[in-house]
Amino acid sequence: MKTMLRFLFVVLALLVGNHQATAQVSSLSIAPAANQTVLFWPTAATNYTLQSTTNLASPNWGTVTNGVPLMAVSVTNTSPAMFFRLYNTNTPPGMAYIPAGSFTMGDTLDNEGDAIPTNVTVSDFYMDVNLVTSNQWCSVYNWAVTNGYGFVNAGAGSATNQPVQTVDWYDAVKWCNARSQMEGLTPVYYTDAGMTQIYTNGEVAITNVNWPANGYRLPTEAEWEKAARGGLSGQRFPWGDTISESQANYLGSVGGYDLGPSGYNTNFDTGAQPYTSSVGYFAPNGYGLYDMAGNIFEWCWDWYGTPYGQPTTNNPTGPGTGTYRVIRGGYWNGPAAHARCAYRTDLNNPFNANDAIGFRCVRGY
Q1: 96 and 83 in one domain?
Q2: Is residue 97 exposed (0-12), middle (13-18) or buried (19+ Cβ within 10 Å)?
Q3: Which of 68, 88, 108 is the endpoint of a domain?
Q4: What CATH number does residue 238 fall under?
Q5: Among the three residues 88, 105, 130, which one is the final residue of a domain in this structure?
Q6: How many domains does the structure of the chain reveal?
Q7: pLDDT 10s digits, 175-199
Q8: Which of 45, 227, 303, 344 is most buried when burial is the number of CB atoms within 10 A of its CB?
């Protein structure tokens, strides 16, 4: 849970708001000075950083570096309108911090026709280090169905610590809301423009999204790819340009960048399909995320569309309407090409639930 204090500075007017999520409040004080305003906070607040943005509707929070770190910052009265927040930097358990910034989304390494490189900027966020497991799914699912939620699919998993699959896009979105409510966070998805009716039932077009909320949601396609790349640029995979079955769970076919061996990963191809693997089995990428290549495809928020990085290159959320939702990351029965960071597909519509697709959650920072 986080403590956040927001400030809006417009010319000579300073509007103060306080959002308190925990009893441990790190207070700020405001001191006017000649042609400037100074924001102070306790020197003991070592887990906090001051951030600013110019737009709360599509925020791109950046760390404020002018002034004295962890103690005070000055804002001149001629500065553009800005929002400020003092933010707790402790990473939630089981999640990794993905820093804000620009990156090249897509590549042309293998003649991808729908992943033309685009420079995209995303705000920082948290992402589950692992895919949602069958055990984790069941824990939230059981709470949800006794608290007014309805799912089309009950979900499946080869083992409790393997990824849940056979859940459609709508089930994943509702599960995100349920997880948020279980943990006392603000849900992200609603069925009304006023953001009062939490999405809990049915399979309906969801257009009302409370993006600044602190609850769980599906990653946007841009967020997913930035996270998958792990800080690298222009590489096929989260770790480099080649892949082998010692690095990911996929269907090998030796040749080119696929070092194989050919066939199913022999560590997991016993018993009945699907041949998914336990989360965290392979090494993480540069951000500490597991299974960003192979094991199971992952639902993203976006409708599939080209070109991507739309409707804006600043925190893009994809087309406003569509037929198919994006899935990313490859899976246990797919070739190495599907595990590439830039690979995207529209083969599965939002109602499709099969043993190729799972998901993981993100939260705003």
Answers
A1: no
A2: middle
A3: 88
A4: 3.90.1580.10
A5: 88
A6: 2
A7: 999 999 999 999 999 999 999 999 9
A8: 227
pTM metric for this prediction: 0.80
Q: Is residue 53 located within the same domain as residue 108?
A: no
Rounded Cα distance, 188 and 169, in Å: 15
Cα-to-chain-centroid distance, residue 279: 17
Strand order of the β-sheet with 72-76 is 29-33, 36-40, 72-76
| Distances from the Cα of 329 to the Cα of 22, 26, 124, 334, 357, angstroms | 36, 40, 21, 10, 10
Residues 121, 216 share a domain: yes
User: What is the domain range of residue 177?
Assistant: 91-365
Tell how far CA 336 is from the center of its chain.
Answer: 23
Please tell me whether residues 16 and 112 are part of one structural domain.
no
Beta strands in the chain (DSSP E): 3-10, 13-20, 29-33, 36-40, 48-53, 62-63, 72-76, 82-88, 95-98, 101-105, 118-122, 125-128, 189-190, 208-209, 216-217, 297-303, 325-328, 344-345, 357-358, 362-364
Span 300-323, pLDDT tens digits: 999 999 888 778 899 999 999 999
Q: Please give the radius of gyration of the chain, using alpha carbons only, rounded to the nearest integer.
A: 22
Residue 68, pLDDT score: 44
